[in-house]
Amino acid sequence: MADQLGFQARHFSLNNPRGEEQDNVPNLLRRLASTIEGMGKIEIRDLVFHNDTDDDGDPWPFVTIYFDYVQEDEGEDEDEDEEGLTGNGYAAGSVAAALSPEAEQRRP
């Protein structure tokens, strides 16, 4: 039998509340950024945007995020770069910052 490769990750999904604004993607991304910021130090493994509909057939998108909590070590992380990012460079702070309303204002 072949060896299985892989890893386990935590995940959650997030959508806007049902109603007039349930299909508002910018609001959904702001809610996601706020949620990520409130989770502490995590490493994002994957982020998937889904298009779904409610029971009436109206659009109701949601996002699923796969993540792991970052373990705090006594010493400095040898994989850490000069910006303080680990792994693939997509720490929670960088994702949340990219999705923040301030980031939208910085875009040309």
Structure notes:
This protein has 108 residues and is an alpha+beta fold. The chain has one domain. Helix content is 25%, strand content 21%. Strands 1-3-2 form a three-stranded antiparallel sheet. Helix 1 runs antiparallel to helix 2. The protein is flat. The termini are far apart. The C terminus is likely disordered.
Tell me briefly what this model is:
This protein has helices at residues 25-37, 92-99, 101-106; strands spanning 10-15, 42-50, 62-69. With 108 residues, it is α+β, with helices and mostly antiparallel strands. The longest helix has 13 residues, at 25-37.
Question: Which structural class do you get from the secondary structure elements?
Answer: alpha+beta
Taking Cα atoms only, what radius of gyration do you get, to the nearest Å? 17 Å
N- and C-termini, Cα separation: 54 Å
Give the biggest sheet. 3 strands, antiparallel
- How many separate domains? 1
Mean pLDDT: 78
- What overall form do the CA principal axes indicate? flat
Contiguous low-pLDDT stretches (5 residues minimum) are 80-94, 103-108
Overall strand count: 3
User: How do the SSEs run, as a string of H and E?
Assistant: EHEEHH
- Supply the number of helical segments: 3
Taken as a percent bin, the fraction of beta residues is: 15-25%
The helix fraction, in percent, is 25-40%
- For the biggest β-sheet, the strand order reads 1-3-2
